[in-house]
Amino acid sequence: MAHAFSKIAERLxxxxxxxxxxxxxxxxxxxxxxxxxxxxxxxxxxxxxATVRLWDGREFPARLLxxxxxxxxxxxxxDDAGLPAxxxxxxSALRVGELVMAIGNPLGFAGAVTTGIxxxxxxxxxxxxxxxxxxxxxxxxxxxxxxxxDASGCVIGINTLIAGGLGAAVPSxxxxxxxxxxxxxxxxxxTVQTVRVEDGRFGLLLLKVEPGSPAANATLAIGDxxxxxxxxxxxxxxxxxxxxxxxxxxxxxxxxxGGREVTRExxxxxxxxxxxxx
Length: 278
What we know:
Number of helices: 4
Structural class: mainly beta
CATH architecture of the largest domain: Beta Barrel
CATH topology of the largest domain: Thrombin, subunit H
CATH class of the largest domain: Mainly Beta
Shape: globular
Helix content: 10-25%
Largest sheet: 7 strands, antiparallel
Low-confidence stretches: 273-278
Distance between the termini: 44 Å
CATH superfamily of the largest domain: Trypsin-like serine proteases
Oligomer: single chain
Number of domains: 3
């Protein structure tokens, strides 16, 4: 059985790639989704200017096809064919206690394999209304974007983050929908963090504003604190996701800037086609 498991792990290693961005130290992993060169990884791993390194050491520049920050997924394309695409499984069929393996490039060790069991499936507080596959696999920087697979070698998730000591992966069914349809829903194009403002309210501090995004076009900037959307207070990322989901293509934001004593307002026209989100 150990020999069979090692053969499965080796096949999956050949379907796992290293993803690097120009001028950025470190990198992440990705999974070959099609033999014609489509790669799926995390949105926080891949943007424009990415390079993909295959298991055999060959490197290719990658084109960004789609990117969804809300689900932390990105699709890349490299110009090669006949690649060892990974088989994808049905994440809805996962059972608690099932054996899983993660493959990535943690701390520079290419194709490292770690194993664990499925802990649960469900949502995570502060990460929107999405389901995750939670397992006790040991993840480290470099695992992001790599596969979480079952004992038969089928990918049942894309490793994304560590939450409460557990590895959290985007379920493979959500990955398949992303690869087929691209980013879903309206987007703002920001990265945020919940903070408490001077009057005791909570708000969302803008840590990053994607160039060319709806937020950037509305002149929102890093350091602004969003406090309300369409009149409803924003105390968590879930609140912002809900406001975006409820919008009809535009959203009215209240925010604080600078000394954070004066409430400012901005009307933002959203774009469903912009493959960024939050």
